[in-house]
What does this fold into?
Amino acid sequence: MPQVSNSSRGPEDAVVAVVVPCYRVRERVVEVLRAIPSWVRHIIVVDDACPDGSGREVETTFTDPRCRVLYHERNQGVGGAVRTGIREALRLGATIIVKLDGDGQMDPARLSQVVRPIAEGRADYAKGNRLHDLQALATMPSARRFGNLALTLLVKVASGYWDISDPTNGYIAIHRRAAAMLPLERIDRGYFFESHMLIHLNVIRAVVAEVPMPAHYAGEPSSLRVGRALFSFPPKLLRGFARRIAWRYFIYNMDAVTVFLLAGALLFFGGVGFGAYRWYLGAFGDTTQTPGTVALGLFPSLIGFQMLLQAMILDIMGRPTVPLQQIVSDDEPA
It folds into this structure.
């Protein structure tokens, strides 16, 4: 019988910690921190070896007792800073951990919206969705909008969360039970970490929710280069997809998807390989290809493709629906 947790009814009832990764945000971070609501219990600023001294600026000008500043001796990337902040939040006993950028592109006034699906027990992980409102979407820089749309489809395939419309959005919140189950040391340290986290969340069967909200683009320079992401993300997504499939359908569990994947791959690639071999013999040799020979390559390929397509459909339908916070107790090992 699964243990059901007693979820908080609203954001103000939960122990919320906000993690603010800092790198070259000295001019904006204090303003962001001052806008964080009073019901947030902990504010964790992670100075990621910031060359302009963002952490020192916070310690000097922001005296809120909720705030603590952590320092990296070497730059680890935004993902590395968030990992450090999540570990500290877990140590402090936070039940919900939110990542809020220090550059002002995420509105602290919307913290309650991001936290609410988790606080109400409906999700283990929540993230903003900038693509919900077409008018808000129009305010997004064109290059970033195109990059997000291109990456969205790839991340959906890799992560298995096909109902997520803005997977690269960095305004995220996570329940402590899901965070404790994640292999944080394996999650990417760079800007790929949001997408990488989604892949790992699917493996542990966490429920993900999106919260519609516009992002702020008031001329702030973005550290994420869309062109670079479009070239660097796909290989990482392919590796993440392969690992997710291996863990989800061959290590943690075996079901109909496992059968369709194995049989479909064998038939499809076997048929394609046989067909290519026979084509080579016919094109460069003296062998005549009969209709039966063509069918021996074509039919297995078509059947294999259909089985692989069925596996994908079952993967889409098999998304998690029961939050981990309702079935995993705090004292259960992660």
